[in-house]
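Archive entry. Fields below.
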Amino acid sequence: MQTDARTAEYVRHILSETGAPVVVFDHVQLAFDEKVVLKDVTFSLIKGHTKIILGASGSGKSTALKILVGLLRADAGVVWVNGQRVDQLAEGQLMAVRNDLGMIFQEGALFDSLTVRENVGYKLYEETTMPLEEVGKRVEEVLGFIDLAEHIDKMPSELSGGQRRRVAIARAMAFKPSIMLYDEATTGLDPITATTVDDEMIKLRDLENVSSLIVTHQLRDAFYVATHMAVRDAQGHVQIQPATPEKERETEFIMLRDGLIIFEGDAASLRRSTDPYIVNFLS
Amino acid sequence: MPLLIRWLKSAAQEVQEYASLTCATFTGAFSRPFYRHDVVEQFDLIGVGSLTVVLLSGLFTGMALASQSGLTLDQFGARPVVGRLVSASMIKELGPVLTALMLTGRIGSGIAAEIGSMVVGDQINALRALGTDPVRKLVVPRMLAGFIMAPVLTVISDFIGILGGWVVARYQLQVNSSLYWASVTKGLYMHDVWMGLSKPFVFGFLIVTIACHVGLRTSGGTAGVGKATTLSVVAGSVAVIAADFFVTQIFIGFIF
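PREDICTED_STRUCTURE:
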């Protein structure tokens, strides 16, 4: 028992240091019957950084995220989240790991029968003992952060596609997770609406110091998030502006093809790649 | 042969999944976290919401039963005992089974469609990612509501059916009211009442758990939701009729 406590303390100490890996995928493999989805995937996500996983449909991008949250179990390999080995945990034990993971699903996956307020505060209302008044304040705070405060009492069906994705982001950030996972958060949205969602991802990363894992095949959004940063001016207004070279280096790209990583590096290296598949994908 | 083996494998897996869901539901019903608000909401939706359909089906069944039995009993000059036939049939068999079939159509389909839509819309995964166990949140409240409300609705249906039988007996068959009600109570034995009260507990549990199981196994988008809804009604109805036979056999074995 004492050893466990000491190990946990040691892990907390390591994770508090700059450059600590908060997510580690180590030789992860997964197949559904005869279809191999992930052949051998290894990567890590540094605290406060962003990793963008690119790839065509069916390349295993979303599967990787689901393994990370414990919604799917890998056939082989090791997955670490915040110093905990999640590939061995039972569903009940995974709940504690998920307290620090916010996931945004394709299409938002908002609960149809709940209002925006209830959706955003869902975890705080249902899974914590936080007083209702405080939950209400937190919900208003996060909805203010994503500029949707006026929609608080609407039902999800009354919102546009972009607003639904942003509410999904608000729901995921309401309980202040340190890692955000975006599964095709901008797919199916027009470029202007997609940019509003991208801006929320940038704001969360730069203003709340959240580590992000973004799965997408929308190159425009991927490069926008990688090359922009959020800053708060003297009046407290948030501005999105081109990222400094140092900030740009905090975002890395991974290209998945047929369950294997064929590229890993920053935006500039990705653009310079001569791999025919990547060149074709980027074109 | 490979087709048969594949079918057997798939059937075995289905049974295994259903058994596993049932175990998880039992565990969820007796341990924390317990979603009290959802339980109250489901009692209202399943119990109060099904009242109209159960009242109507019970009333017309009792009336039709009295009308039909009146004609048959006339052949033996036994019209005054129509109440005995109506009460015994309603309480032992028709009340529980018809109420359960109505519930299968109304709540079984609704549960499968609702949970199925949540599955294809990634809402179940969202629940899990937010730290909620879908079995505790969705299945346990529905199971408790089905288990408790099916017997309550059956008792109401039995009473309304017997009342409907009285209307026909009094105004169509011209049977004296006191004769009818005396016949109703005379034809009833305690073991009939126990049998009629025990069946709905089994039916309510089966209808809800089958619907939840089918809903949670939905795949294939909106078309899959449609298939899940149909399957939950078909499987639920067959399960109710099969369970009726087995529960009856168990009671007959114990009592007679």
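CURATOR_NOTE: The longest helix of chain A spans residues 191-207.
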